[in-house]
Design brief:
Length: about 375
């Protein structure tokens, strides 16, 4: 954690335009920099020290999770940002950088009112840039989260029965991840039967049932005990292998294969994204691929880099990404295949192990 905070201090020196403190507000960023897994707390990082500002509910937890980090425990009833202003005044801050994407307008106004002589400097993505490249401990936790997700899916798939509702399947999948050892889902699982799979972020319903259409889309992930996540998507054929399903599935699989083969250090996210889209264009399906190719993940399910809206980001060893091309046809359904990959010094390692060939989609009977 010290190394991570020192890396942030380097950014503060180089990009802080004279700011002598950085206010870290994002819960995930506070966790990344300190190891603290609670909420309602922020971190002040100065050139020679750091202070977690929290409340009495977390006194013991802070002592356990981030021993050695200075803590300021607010008195009962004191709002968080009143406590921040109190600490900033005590430390003599004159210019404060802050995470503009993570603080509300109301909370920022409290700071401005209580710190009238302190310059404030909005920043974006300072800590998120550090989080893009995972260290060995983070990679171990991500591998564990993938294993938990795959264990639960394998169990769910083996027990699929026609007539089960999407919601019941989602509940079973989430419970399966917890039973395997996860602290919970990485995000609300998406289980979509037939035409519902045309909605990339569909929420499982209580009326659509397994067998109402020929296939099921499952998008899920686990959160491991340390807070790191995984993200996968697989298709399950519950009826017939139709010509249309086969054609689209093979096209999506080829696009994913092309994208994964293009991933290597130094290549840009945009170049990999373009490879997948070119493959789907060759199949006459590019217009039905309506989202980015993938994204980073870790303490959050969506992290930098994003292989769609950040085309100029260069890939580096240690980055972990999803690769998830999809094709969505309103009224018919959608097909998405998603795997988690690690960029290595040599190229790429696929971290997920569930098969993704066409034959593997058939429901066990």
């Amino acid at each position: 954690m010290n190394r991570r905070r020192d890396a942030l201090r380097k950014i503060l020196r180089e990009e802080g335009q004279g700011a002598n403190g950085m206010l870290v507000v994002s819960v995930a960023n506070v966790t990344y920099l300190t190891g603290f897994t609670g909420d309602s707390s922020v971190l002040l990082v100065l050139p020679d020290r750091e202070v977690v500002i929290s409340d009495g509910r977390y006194t013991e937890q802070l002592a356990r999770e981030c021993a050695g980090v200075e803590c300021h425990i607010r008195p009962v009833g004191q709002p968080l940002y009143v406590g921040v202003a109190e600490v900033a005044n005590r430390l003599g801050l004159t210019s404060l950088a802050f995470e503009s994407a993570s603080i509300s307008v109301a909370d920022f106004q409290v700071l401005k009112d209580l710190l009238p002589t302190v310059e404030t400097q909005p920043t974006r993505s300072w800590v998120e840039r550090l989080r893009m490249v995972k260290d060995a401990g983070e990679l171990d936790q991500i591998r564990h989260a993938i294993q938990l997700a795959e264990t639960a899916f394998t169990e769910l798939r083996a027990g699929l029965k026609l007539g089960q509702t999407e919601k019941a399947l989602a509940d079973d999948l989430e419970f399966g991840m917890r039973r395997a050892g996860a602290s919970g889902s990485a995000f609300p699982p998406i289980l979509a039967v037939g035409a519902n799979a045309a909605l990339p972020h569909y929420r499982p319903g209580a009326t659509a049932r397994l067998g109402d259409a020929d296939f099921l889309l499952v998008d899920w992930g686990a959160t491991g005990p340390g807070g790191y996540r995984s993200d996968l998507t697989r298709m399950v054929v519950t009826g017939k292998f139709t010509d249309q399903f086969t054609r689209i599935y093979n096209a999506v699989l080829e696009a994913q294969t092309q994208a994964i083969s293009a991933i290597c250090p130094g290549r840009t996210a945009g170049e990999v994204n373009a490879r997948a889209r070119a493959s789907l264009s060759d199949a006459g399906l590019a217009e039905y691929f309506t989202h980015g190719l993938g994204h980073g993940f870790g303490l959050e399910i969506h992290e930098m880099p994003f292989m769609g809206r950040e085309p100029d980001v260069r890939l580096e060893p240690g980055m972990v990404l999803t690769v998830e091309p999809g094709v969505y046809l309103p009224g018919w359904g959608g097909i998405r295949i998603e795997d988690d990959v690690l960029i290595t010094s040599e190229g790429v390692e696929v971290l997920t192990s569930l098969p993704r060939d066409l034959a593997s989609t058939l429901r066990p009977v």
